[in-house]
Specification:
The radius of gyration is 40 Å and the shape is elongated. About 50% of the residues lie in helices and about 20% in strands. By secondary structure, it is an alpha+beta fold. The N and C termini lie far apart (about 85 Å).
Length: about 450
Amino acid sequence: MSQVPMQEQLTNVQTAKILLDLQRVFLEELDLDQLVLRIVKEIHSNLVMLDMGFNIVVLGLIDKERNVLSRTSVTQTDETRKALSVLPLPFKQIDVSLDESQNYCVSSALNRRFQLTHDWANILTPPFTIAESQMAQAAAGIQTSYIYPLHGHEGPLGVMIFSTTAFKEELTDLEHSLLNGCSDIASIAVQTSNLYKKAVDRSKDLEKTNSELVELDHIKDEFVSLTSHELRTPLTIIKNYQWMAINKPDVPLGPATAKFLDTALLSVDRLTLLVEDMLTVSHIHSSKFALKKGDVDIISLIKAIHEEYSVKATEKSFHYPFSSDTESLVMSLDKSRIQQVYINMLGNALKFTPVAGTVATTIQKLDGKLHISVTDTGPGIPADKMNQLFTKFGKIDESYKNMPTTSGTGLGLYISQEIMKLHGGEITVQSEYGKGSTFTMSLPIV
């Protein structure tokens, strides 16, 4: 096996070290404007250090929006200044259309092919004429230029051009390997910078969109709050006049008229409930929802509400038990809000459980918490609908079949869960479709 000469071994080591150093330097810079300047500067300084005779290094990138290959950065050398001094356009205006397939830079980028030329007309025409291109080449004293394509995952990125005052028909394997490696690392760096820019732009867009959504949500909450307040008064007046028409009429009402007024009064009650719930939700969102805590015997409170609803349970022939493992427990609570939560749980159970079913309330102290559960033998909740329960307007369609006059606002459980969170607790549910459900409100015992 033949041995590689020591000088070539050393050059191989130098080549590998240069490429590793360039990779480290390029990937440290994510801003594209700074990166393109750094690429040509770092590559050129390393080529000068190796005394490879490359006087001009140019980076050109594809601008997809304008469909051009644009000169992006160039080394600041005497040769560069001499060439630019005779050209009629500034460096950064040297663009060539991607449709100009005869241009070596365009064909190299699009076809992913290395090119060599001794005539700058091949790389500067268009936009310049052949005469202008050759004049610039003569002013800089350039003899040979090498064009390497830059390519990424999404297609061509651009080219790198290495120009020297030496006349060469070909590169050595090591020279070609080094220039090709420099171009590959530049491709990776440009592609990484583009991805970073896209991520930053996307983040800014999302931040702007999120800010707009927050503002819209705020406006919506203010609108709901204002509308709810404004609706309260006319609803109260309508309800009062309806009640007077039903209970204190100047002329006795016929059965049909009485029925119509009863139906209208029921609808006003439902609308009033919706307005109150919407107002509560808007207060929750705007942080105006504050608890008014005081010492409350929660066992007595729950038992009293349970007994209050016993008339409704009797109407439907329910088995309606109540059990508690403790007689009394005083806690710091917002009495009206805890009452609201339990009534919501109990009311739903009474509403959806069929005649002669069971609605049971159980209170237990367990693991430092008080658990108040309402168990029913109603229709249960499908597993794929469980995640809708505690969302706004989270009504389960199956539960409301054949019950058009008793449907709620779809806000009760959402509001109840928010009330429990403010108390440091939560509502959980266990259900088997077709067999019933158990809703449990849990409060930490402090």
